[in-house]
Amino acid sequence: MNKLFDQLRTSKLLIFCLFVLLSMSTGCDNSADRDGSTPMARVYDKFLYSNDLMDIIPTGLVGPDSSEIAKSYIDQWIKKQLLLKHAEFNLEEKNKDFTALIEDYRASLLIYEYKKQMLLDKVDTVVSNNQIEQYYSRNLQSFKLASSVVKALYVRINKSNTKVAEIRQLIGSNNESSFESLVNLCYQYADRFDFFEDEWVSLNQILQKIPDSPENENEFLSSNSLLETQDEEFIHFLQIHEFKRGGETAPVEYVRDKIQDLVRTQRKMEYLQDLEESIYQDAIQKNDFEIFE
Question: Would residue 278 count as lying in a domain?
Fold first, then answer.
C-alpha cells in the first residue's frame, strides 16, 4: 500500500477510499492503475489517483481532518471534470480552441521566470551612500515635499506628574547638559517620548497626537520652535529642531529608501534591456532567425 494509505491507515479517509474503490469496481479494473497508484474516483474516462492527493494532505495529518480534506478535494475534482465534459460537449469548435492562447500564456510565464532568475543572479541590489547622493543631486526636482517634515522632540506627560515643571524648564533650554537631563527624565516619567533628532518625520504625523494643534503649519514653523498644549489628562510638548516646508526639496535622508528602490528598479530595467538586445544580436550573428519579405 502506498505512502498515503500508510499515513491514513487508522483514519476515516481509509474507509472513505475503500468505499470509493468498491463503488467503482464494476467500472474499472487493474488497467486503471497508474504507476502503482490506486484510482480514487472516476468521471467518464478520467481517473483521480491516490498519488494526486499526496500533495494536498499535510505531512503527518491523520484522522477526521485528513478525511475531510481528501473528501473535499475529490468532490471538487469530480465537479470540475463534469463541468469540463459538458463544456466540451456543448461549446462550438471555434470556442474550444485555446491553443494559441495557452501557448502565449506559457511563453509569457517562461519569459517571466527566466527574467526573474536572471535578475536575482546578475543584478546588484546594494546601493551605496555615494550612489544615493549622486542620484539625489541629479534629480532634485523629483523630491519636492508634499508637506512639511521636521526633526523634533515630542513629550506627553500626565498633568498630575510632579516632574511637569522640571520638564517644562528643561525643554525650553538649549543647554546640552539640560538636554541630557530632559532625556533622562522623559524616559523615566513621560507617558510618551518620541525623539526624532536623527530622522526626518512628517509634521502632520506628530500634530495628529496633539490636541488643539496649529491649523497653519507654515505660520507655526515660522514663529515657534516650542509648542505646549494640553487635554483633560495630559500635557503635550513639541520642540522643533529643524524643518523643511512643503514644496521645498526633501532632505536626502528623508528620501533615502525611495532612492534605493528607484536605483534598483533602474538597474533592473537597464539589465533586462541589455539582456534582450544581447540575445537579439547574438541570434543575428548565428543566423537563428529570418524575416521573409
Answer: yes
